[in-house]
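Researcher: Good morning. I'm working through a list of sequences from a screen, and I'd like to move beyond sequence-only analysis. For each chain I'm collecting a predicted structure so we can compare shapes side by side. This is the next one on the list. No need for commentary yet; just the structure.
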Amino acid sequence: MLLVGWLCLLAACSATKFVPEEEHILSSVEISADEKNFNVAILEPYIRQKANSKWFSLFKIPLATYSLSGRDTTKWLNRTLQRIGEEPVLFDTVQARLTCNDLRMAMVNMGYMHARADYSTRTKGKKLKCRYMLHPGVPYIINNVYYDIQDSSIARFLSNQSQGTSSIEPGTPFTTERLDAERKRITALLMNNGYYRFHKDYIQYTADSTAGSQLVDLTLHLLKYKPNSAAPETAHPAYTIRSVTWKSHDNDSRIHLRRRVLENNTALKAQQPFSSAALQKTYNNFGRLQAVRYTNIRFQEVPDSQQLDCVIQLSTHKPSTISFQPEGTNTAGNLGAAASLTYENRNLFRGSELLSVQLRGAFEAITGLEGYQNEDYEEYSLETKLSFPRFILPFPRTTHRTSATSNPRTSESTELAVSYNLQNRPEFHRRIFSTVLRYRWSQPQRHLNWRIDVLDLNYVYMPWISDTFKREYLDNENSRNAILRYNYEDLLIMKIGLGISYNNRKHALRANIETAGNLLSASADLLHLKKNSLNQSTLFSIAYAQYAKFDFDYTRLVKFDEENQLALHAAMGVAYPYGNSNVLPFEKRYFAGGANSVRGWSVRGLGPGKFKGTDGRIDFINQTGDMKLDLNLEYRTALFWKFNGAAFIDAGNIWTLREYAEQPGGQFQLSEFYKQIAVGYGLGLRLNFDYFIIRFDAGMKAINPAYNNHREHYPVMHHHLSRDFSFHFAVGMPF
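Model: Good morning. Structure tokens for this chain:
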């Protein structure tokens, strides 16, 4: 409340302090139309003058900051306030008249041929409100479409193309957008079939409308070829590629790529017609190769013929690099440091294969543990990745065909990875060996990315567990963590998975599904797998995990203006152990709270259900579940310089799918779960450096399902700062 009061006080500062006499500050701008169904929002970008920006669309803090300064700019404070603030926007009648003209032309281009736009103002003191009124009228409709194609070969070619793809069919609105789309469609069609010299300026239109009617007869004219004003008109030449050659960009060094790789990534083929789509596909293919820095493709016309020689110039990266990266870590409040050393070879087999070898070490000083000899956490890992810019096994025969001639909007890759991770905690030591075979492909034009994990194998080995940990949490049947003993035994996870993501800057969607243990379970009899004392099937005397898991994540961005937008986010996940497993592996379980979840709680501090945990030394292990729900609403606003602000409301929790005595109140029940949804709220500050974002979020609990009494269940009305406040530091946006 104090913050809101301060914002109101600051916004109330004299906004007219720097407004000259007989001039007015533009306090607000509105746009409306006299047609109810006309969408005025699409014309807002044509307004030349807009009022001063607002924080959260409410407070004109930048203007108020500017107004706090004095007129004497020799003083440092005044210069600073004016630099970080925003100068008053003074209403300009010239800009208003130009805006009306722009709005009128925009409506004409939308088919409203007799559209008008005007503006009116209302003043109060030195403040002025401006309102633009649109009078679009009745839109024009295409009545008949005629074609005047003056090149007979092109006329024959177009007549053989499939019908129904034109955007200027009779009965459709008469708009410049439709006319331009048809020009682009025909131009692309011709340029993909040999017409190297064709461009859309050879296509023109004639429109004829009858007086008193909103019907337009449209004629499309396709003119003959004329390279310059002095040359005679001729038929458009259709070119064939005579040869394709590859050269180093500096012409002195050799290209460190195999001949077959060059051919496979070149969609332009000798003895084939020139194709603009194949040209773009070639650029895309070489652009995604790790070994290639940039590509330049030139065409040389063969004299006295309609043939082209294609020369592809390539500049390649240095094949090998070594990098060192230090970092700070903060796991559940425990501070530490980490460093990684990475070696990369971008052209291992002269086919732009990427080999990456990373050695990483981390250290954290763990606090709050009692009864353990060591209070440090150490981690060392070695990870090797090999990525191919194409599909390999099990697709060896189709690799070369798909690389060059597949959809020009698609790219493929294959990844192989092997890693070893060593973790030494005060409670236990853990070793993890992993290997994965993964395929990825993307469709940039559709904003789609796909991933298939053909094989993902993880082996978890526990060489040592402290006596204190065993006694208090594993061997004691009455221990609240007895159910999690499964996660501190040797374990084998063999899974397959499928992932899809979609992102068009307004909508972002991710969905993943994975299953583990099904192949081993189906082959148990064939492989003669033995069972352990818990009746679990084992491979090499190690029980394997069996479960199914599904995750869904959706974000919607609603943009109000250049400075303000609303982000809506929903995420859910569910994982179910069955067959050979009664409990999910710890790494596959869900947790709630933290910088990317319900920010009123610390990491792993929420749930499951109404389970509130205790002050146990390793409570984060128990506050996990099989199901998760996150709902977030965040209002984002630009502040000044690189600083952005946010106000958010978060809701969600995790649940278990089974009733566990050690997690009372944690099981999901359809009749109860909505009562167990936690709610938090808060403010955020972000430093936006474009290529990365540093984020600070301060969250408060509003509804805490862990408590039944009114005072603690609704901390929003009975807040206690030390109990209900959480601060988060993170890199990147939460969603």
